[in-house]
Amino acid sequence: xxxxxxxxxxxxxxxxxxxxxxxxxxxxxxxxxxxxxxxxxxxxxxxxxxxxxxxxxxxxxxxxxxxxxxxxxxxxxxxxxxxxxxxxxxxxxxxxxxxxxxxxxxxxxxxxxxxxxxxxxxxxxxxxxxxxxxxxxxxxxxxxxxxxxxxxxxxxxxxxxxxxxxxxxxxxxxxxxxxxxxxxxxxxxxxxxxxxxxxxxxxxxxxxxxxxxxxxxxxxxxxxx
Length: 225
Hints:
The chain is mainly beta. The chain has one domain (45-224): Porin.
């Protein structure tokens, strides 16, 4: 009986040792951790950029109070912009100043044997912007003050004269901007610009009054700091 009892105890001990060894061989593998979602793009910060596109110049003209016609033409526009955005949730507010060279001009305005050419040489604006961000895609509207330098050249049978004026008016527009990286964004934008009226050659019996508006379509790149 003692031999049987010792054998039983030995068998139980060996079985316990075997189960312990098998448990020790088991390796623990933690559950995989889900990858963190990428952080949403934040539009807050200063930026600098360049743009290029088309300016559609539209002019209405009168001489000594008499209407002498209107015309429109399209030219190139290219320049630079700088601004600052601040994002609150999905709302982005900001301000921007831009300035550009333009080749837009209206030519061959005829009156009493004279021809005139009106060229919009420079165009700029300072605007406030409000937009809505879909992560790295932004749509916005903007509006503010616009300014530009315009020059009129008049050619007559007895000679040529010219006069330049700065116009100040207003602008409003819409645009969309996409962030390719944390620092580089691209934009498409449309703006209507009303530069108001100015009188040229004021010493010539009331002169030539020019009322200028333009439609600007442009694309650009910004570097966000």
